[in-house]
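Quick one: structure tokens for this chain, please?
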Amino acid sequence: MPSRFLDPEAARRVSEHRYEFRAKPLGGRVVLVPGGAGGLGSAITALLLHEGALPVVGYRSHRGRALAFQQKMQDMYGGPIALVEGDIGEPAVREKYLQAALDIKGEVYGLVALPGDPARVKPDELDAEALRASFAANYEAPVLLARATAERMIRQGTKGAIVLVSSMQGVHAFEGSLAYAGPKAALVQAGRILAKEYGGPADIRVNVVAPGATIAGMARASIDSGKYDPYVERGVIPRFGRPEDVARVVRLLLEPDSYVTGQVITIDGGLTLRRDRLG
């Protein structure tokens, strides 16, 4: 007897080897992308536009730069971009993001929470104030925006997707990175908890990406300083990461009707896996 949970149409497609791969399933869906005007976020915004999504792109300051980015992306990819200014650590700014989504289409489908702070504090200078600032930027702000977005999705009845952005330092121990890595590791666990709380019937998928040494975003300064050169020179990784590497994984996790939730995907070319080869 067929299970009452089995979709008859899906079962028919499987039996006929006709699988469902829709063209541009993100078309017309509103995705919040705080931090989407630069670094890794610019590649994610570009890919969303290419897929026909409606990104709400946020930036902290430098409005002129954000407007130039908005115009360039719209000229290149054709789709509209809404801009939101401010720090997502502030409740009013988080509400501005959600309101922007409502103004566009009356609902929000997704969130990619990019903002954070590199928290480059020398180990012998680390104090309580530096830790609090890092946790506020790298954990508290994205988690609160993720929860607010998920609650809005539930009220709308939207089955959506949330992607939190951690770091390879949040999933692997790098000496000297306590101020930054601690909050990023906590963000990984927060993603799993949110996936558990908002999964099931609500079907809000929450996942985490952990970029490695990538030539954009917060890792760019470390790459420019030569910190990670030995990993390429000694063949630990074939090259440094590109923004597109991260954008493609984020796009996968935003897929409507996705079957992936509560996961962390490290995008580092195998750096953390093969770090022992550096010795």
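DSSP finds nine helices and seven strands in the chain.
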